[in-house]
Amino acid sequence: MSSVVLSEVCEVPLKDLPLDNWMAHLPNALWDIPLCNLSIPGSHNAITYCLDKNDRSPVDLTQPDVLQKLDKYMKPLIRPFVYKWAIAQECTVTEQLDGGVRYCDLRIAHRPNDSSTDLYFYHGVYTAITVETVLKEIRDWLDAHPREVVILSFSHFLGLSQELHTMLISTIKNVFAAKLCPKSEPVTLRNLWSRGFQLIISYEHNVTNCHSDLWSHIPYWWANKCKAEALIEEFERRKQNGRPGGFFVTGINLTEDLKYICSHPTESLKDMVMSTYPVLLSWLKEQRPGSNTGSINIIAGDFVTESQFVPTVIALNEKLLKRTS
């Protein structure tokens, strides 16, 4: 590596880069490394900061029947618990992007008994704002940050007909247009910058086979654990079998079960997450991006702008900067 790059690394540690433009400020030794071999901070259930607080909005249809019945007949008692454990991010998508997030986990739904074609996000409850509104907000942010690249993962589709999938894809293409990166492109910062591509769309549906600018679903490692130590143990086990070949996500988001909720009646998802971040961040600092067995790529979590999560993930890319004698 040149002395220029080495001096950049020494003078400006990657954890201190401006979070709203950290990709643009990466040393040029990282510009030709595929993005699937970089360490990228992500947001799990990114659009849960705007869940619909209107009592007429039902809980989503993936929830257990007993919860749906309780919510229907005991809404004033049940709904506050639903919100406490459904909100995974409190910052808007613009604030998350400004805070360094470059991967967004988007769960898409069509509300039951809704005669319109509007689509929403959901996690326990549907959002109050539409998918199209959020996508335009992301486009506006990208316009103001031309050297940043964002990955949007559309998945967990709920209540979408083939017609609604077609409409959603049309909306994605209309909103982002020339920013969409085709599957055939080498995904390095240098190439994406030269071509003006800023967005990679992952879409969990076989319709991706018919669209050159829709990428297949990005694997998401989900440990399904409510304790940090158990989550780490699960990921260490998976790492021994090697990482997937392209993009993949390690989700350090904890998952509460009924037993945990009942034994912590005054807590919330945020309480659980923030109490475990010190352990999770210590583990994160030991990880390494790259193509080797055991390497990481995208790391997604909850309440990602409210800890040192994002700078910690970005700083892992320093391990890719090899000093030459």
TrEMBL record:
<dbReference type="Pfam" id="PF00388">
    <property type="entry name" value="PI-PLC-X"/>
</dbReference>
<dbReference type="InterPro" id="IPR017946">
    <property type="entry name" value="PLC-like_Pdiesterase_TIM-brl"/>
</dbReference>
<dbReference type="InterPro" id="IPR000909">
    <property type="entry name" value="PLipase_C_PInositol-sp_X_dom"/>
</dbReference>
<dbReference type="GO" id="GO:0008081">
    <property type="term" value="F:phosphoric diester hydrolase activity"/>
</dbReference>
<protein>
    <submittedName>
        <fullName>PI-PLC X domain-containing protein 1</fullName>
    </submittedName>
</protein>
<dbReference type="InterPro" id="IPR042158">
    <property type="entry name" value="PLCXD1/2/3"/>
</dbReference>
<dbReference type="GO" id="GO:0006629">
    <property type="term" value="P:lipid metabolic process"/>
</dbReference>
<feature type="domain" description="Phosphatidylinositol-specific phospholipase C X">
    <location>
        <begin position="32"/>
        <end position="204"/>
    </location>
</feature>
<dbReference type="InterPro" id="IPR051057">
    <property type="entry name" value="PI-PLC_domain"/>
</dbReference>
